[in-house]
C-alpha cells in the first residue's frame, strides 16, 4: 500500500515537472521572436550558420560558404549583415556557374563573391531606410570584399544594387541572428 502511494506521488511529481518544463520551453520560444525562412524558424539566439543550414531555400548558399571556407568566419562574433541569395537566385546564374565556382581552384573567386554579400555591423531595414531618407533616396555601404553596394526603394520594397548594375530585391528583411542580421535576396550580387 505504501509503495502504491509513493509511486503515485512520484508519478504526480514527474508529470508536474514535465508540464512545467514544457511550459518553460514554450515561454522561451515566445520570448525568442523567430522569422520563418525556407520553411524553418530562424532563432535570434543562434548564429548565421546555425540558422542558415536549416533553410531549405539556402542550400546552395550554405554549400558555397562551406566550399569557400567561410563557415568559421560566419560563426564568429561579428556582427555581420548578410544579404543571402536563395537557391532560386543562384539558379538565375548561367548554367554551370555555381558548379564551377565551388571547385577548389576557384575558391578565391567564390570567396570574393560571397564576401561581397556581407557588410560589417548589424544593419536593419529600418537603418537602411533612415540612411536613404537622409541621402536623397539612396545609400551606399562598403562590403567585407571592399566594394560598395547601393540601396534604394521602389514603393515599399527595398533593393540592393551591385557594382555591375544588377539589382536584388530584399524579400525577407531583418532575420536577426546572435552575430548579426540576414536579409534574404532574390538575385546573386556580383562585384
TrEMBL record:
Pfam families, per database record: Fasciclin
Gene3D superfamilies: FAS1 domain
Secretion signal span: 1-25
Keyword set, alphabetical order: Signal
InterPro entries in the cross-refs: Adhesion/Biosynth-related (IPR050904), FAS1_dom_sf (IPR036378), FAS1_domain (IPR000782)
Gene Ontology cellular component list: extracellular space
FAS1 domain sequence ranges: 45-189
Name of protein: Uncaracterized surface protein containing fasciclin (FAS1) repeats
Organism, scientific name: Kaistella chaponensis
